[in-house]
């Protein structure tokens, strides 16, 4: 089999760039021209490619101008933020045979010389789960991109810090790693001070940890958590303040990059539930309303029947990764971070749901948050990124909170679908009660209050009325469509409902669907906590899922390229030649559901799951 870490098309050494006349000629290549250019952050050494046949155009046109048809790339550990050396595998979508392999140093580098088009990029490193994503190339310099790899072995550090926080009532542990933004090197001796007065100094790994006790306002019913700030300073660097951090009886971890220079920058981290920015709310509601209208065709017609089994019995395609636009103004972003979809949910959920909420509320939120992200992978807002990290899309930051990481893990792979094939547009908002409280001082977001107090819905937008008693007497600080975020907390904390019930309640009226309230939970694509993760890699085409381990067995479904799967066990069957060479190994991803290992990215050439 071909290596899952680096796949070489031919032997050879690499030159910094092809001579311009050769790059334009369309003549056969000299094997081994390099598309990784030395820049201020130099990266790799080798990028051999197969020579083109006589008269065939170059597979990837190398240009001597490294500022065009290029993008800067860096790879980091998604837990600690540490810069990683990595292996890249790059191929034009639909042309797997033209795959090139590159080595990337921890400092990162510039991938250059890409002809116009879409490319499938696989990023891997020893000890980490690989990430497969899409790169768009045109005549312009692409956006700087960071790929965040999750370690194969789960870290218990955040959970251990959560135990520290639990040792005393109303204690919070804030930890993190501090790096030089340009080099990615950890900063030793950086000074950290919290708004609670706690101080720390970073160690040789750039790590810091502060713990402080805070007072909750017990007199306020359903009060938002108190907040604090973190100030990070190092000689020769611009100081940074993280402002508006929620204080919960848990552990939170931050990755902080400091820029060389002087002065101070402030990054506001006010939770979206506490943000009173009316303009941002209006922009968010306008975007959501348009998307709701775009998806109106998903509404059930009168007399149509849809059973939950139609979705739950089907392995809905779940994307393995998501491209997140960063440094955004609205939906316009100047950077890209690529995460596995599960990492994205684990790190981002605390920005939309309050991490001190009940575990079942957070788990229900994880399903909605994951589905929302998966929808945008299928309907990206830009050729360069799928989703933005602001209120114009779904708020995301790379910090981690133990409780929301656990919620993502508890619901791994589960998304909502209306057709049993793709992710639904999973709307949610803060308070969805269909009543405008005249005394709360808040502007009602719902343009349709016909359902009345104690109900959730917006019939004029195809969301039928839903009895939602936990919202009665609350202002309609929401649009009435989909899930009520505060409602998930009340159903869980005050009524003992679990995340499955809560999700079904808001999205399919507990198996009584109508209109847009007809989205059901998938079964997570046959996920099994004891299995091994994998990613379908066909370089653009759907992969047949068969009833047994061989091409002679019936096709029971398909998986989109880039879909995330969990391999329950492996067995031998028909030999198949695919993206990863020739192999007779077949992976079972569910009951009576098998895919060839030759088309499955696992990060290893060896078996990764027990025998079936």
List keywords for this structure.
about 600 residues, alpha+beta, seven-stranded mixed β-sheet, five-stranded mixed β-sheet, 9 helices, 35 strands, about 30% strand, disordered N terminus
Describe this structure in words.
This protein is α+β, with helices and mostly antiparallel strands and 612 residues long. Helix content is 16%, strand content 30%. It has nine helices and 35 strands. The strands form ten sheets. It has a seven-stranded mixed beta sheet with strand order 1-5-2-8-18-17-19. It has a five-stranded mixed beta sheet with strand order 11-10-13-14-16, with no helix packed on it. Helix 6 crosses helix 9.
Mean pLDDT: 83
The computed structural class is alpha+beta
Helix content estimate: 10-25%
User: Per DSSP, what share of the residues sits in E-state strands of 2 or more residues?
Assistant: 25-35%
Q: Largest sheet, order of strands side by side?
A: 1-5-2-8-18-17-19
Distance between the termini: 20 Å
- In total, the number of strands is 35
Shape: globular
Task: State Rg.
Answer: 25 Å
What about the largest sheet? 7 strands, mixed
How many DSSP H or I helices? 9
> Regions with pLDDT < 50 over 5+ consecutive residues?
1-65, 525-529
What order do the helices and strands come in, and which of them pair?
Layout: H1 20-25, E1 36-37, E2 70-77, E3 86-92, E4 100-104, E5 109-112, E6 117-124, E7 131-137, E8 145-149, H2 157-166, E9 171-180, E10 191-194, E11 199-201, E12 207-213, E13 227-233, E14 239-246, E15 251-258, E16 264-268, H3 278-294, H4 308-312, E17 321-329, E18 332-340, H5 341-352, H6 359-378, E19 387-388, E20 400-401, H7 402-410, E21 416-417, E22 428-429, E23 433-434, E24 452-458, E25 463-467, E26 483-484, H8 485-495, H9 499-508, E27 520-521, E28 532-536, E29 543-546, E30 555-559, E31 564-567, E32 569-578, E33 581-590, E34 593-596, E35 600-601
């Amino acid at each position: 089999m071909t290596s899952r870490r680096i796949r070489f098309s031919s032997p050879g050494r690499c030159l910094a760039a092809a001579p311009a006349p050769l790059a334009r000629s369309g003549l056969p290549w000299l094997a081994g021209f390099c598309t990784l250019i030395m820049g201020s952050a130099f990266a790799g050494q080798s990028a051999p490619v197969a020579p083109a046949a006589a008269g065939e155009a170059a597979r990837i046109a190398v240009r001597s101008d490294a500022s065009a048809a290029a993008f800067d790339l860096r790879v980091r550990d998604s837990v600690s933020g540490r810069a990683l050396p990595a292996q890249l595998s790059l191929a034009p979508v639909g042309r797997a045979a033209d795959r090139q392999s590159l080595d990337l140093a921890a400092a990162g580098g510039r991938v250059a010389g890409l002809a116009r088009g879409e490319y499938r990029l696989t990023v891997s490193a020893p000890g980490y789960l690989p990430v497969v994503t899409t790169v768009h190339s045109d005549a312009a310099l692409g956006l700087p991109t960071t790929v965040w790899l999750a370690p194969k072995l789960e870290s218990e550090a955040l959970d251990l810090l959560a135990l520290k926080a639990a040792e005393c009532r109303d204690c919070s542990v804030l930890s993190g790693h501090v790096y030089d933004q340009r080099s990615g090197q950890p900063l030793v001796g950086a000074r950290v001070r919290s708004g609670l007065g706690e101080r720390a100094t970073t160690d040789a790994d750039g790590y810091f940890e502060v713990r402080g006790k805070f007072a909750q306002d017990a007199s306020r019913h359903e009060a938002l958590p108190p907040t604090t700030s973190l100030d990070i300073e190092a000689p020769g660097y611009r100081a940074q303040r993280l402002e508006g951090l929620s204080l919960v009886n848990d552990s939170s971890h931050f990755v902080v990059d400091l820029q060389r220079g002087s002065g101070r920058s402030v990054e506001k981290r006010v939770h979206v539930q506490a943000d009173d920015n009316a303009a941002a709310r209006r922009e968010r509601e306008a975007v959501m309303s348009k998307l709701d209208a775009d998806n109106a065709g998903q509404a059930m017609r009168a007399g149509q029947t849809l059973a939950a089994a139609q979705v739950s019995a089907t392995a809905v395609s779940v994307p393995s990764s998501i491209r997140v636009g960063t440094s955004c103004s609205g939906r316009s972003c100047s950077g890209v971070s690529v995460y596995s979809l599960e990492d994205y949910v684990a790190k981002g959920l605390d920005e939309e749901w309050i991490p001190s909420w009940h575990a079942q509320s957070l788990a229900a939120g994880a399903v909605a948050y994951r589905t929302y992200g998966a929808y945008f992978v299928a309907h990206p807002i830009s050729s360069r990124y799928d989703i933005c990290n602001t209120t114009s899309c779904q708020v995301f930051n790379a910090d981690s909170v133990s409780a929301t990481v656990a919620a993502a893990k508890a619901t791994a792979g589960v998304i909502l679908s209306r057709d049993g094939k793709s992710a639904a547009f999973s709307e949610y908002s803060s308070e969805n009660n269909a009543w405008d409280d005249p005394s709360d001082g808040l502007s009602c977001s719902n343009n349709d209050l016909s359902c009345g107090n104690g109900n959730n819905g917006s019939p004029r937008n195809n969301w039928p009325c839903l009895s939602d008693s936990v919202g009665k007497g609350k202002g309609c600080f929401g649009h009435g469509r989909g899930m009520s975020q505060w409602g998930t907390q009340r159903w869980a904390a005050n009524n003992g409902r679990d995340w499955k019930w809560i999700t079904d309640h808001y999205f399919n009226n507990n198996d009584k669907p109508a209109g847009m309230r007809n989205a059901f939970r998938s079964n997570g694509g046959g996920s099994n906590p004891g299995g091994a993760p994998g990613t379908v890699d066909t370089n653009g085409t759907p992969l047949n899922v068969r009833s047994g381990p061989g091409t002679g067995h019936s096709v029971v479904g398909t998986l989109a390229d880039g879909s995330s799967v969990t391999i329950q066990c492996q067995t031998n069957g028909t030999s198949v030649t695919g993206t990863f060479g020739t192999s007779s190994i077949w992976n079972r991803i569910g009951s009576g559901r098998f895919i060839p290992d030759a088309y499955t990215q696992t990060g290893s050439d060896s078996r990764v799951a027990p025998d079936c």
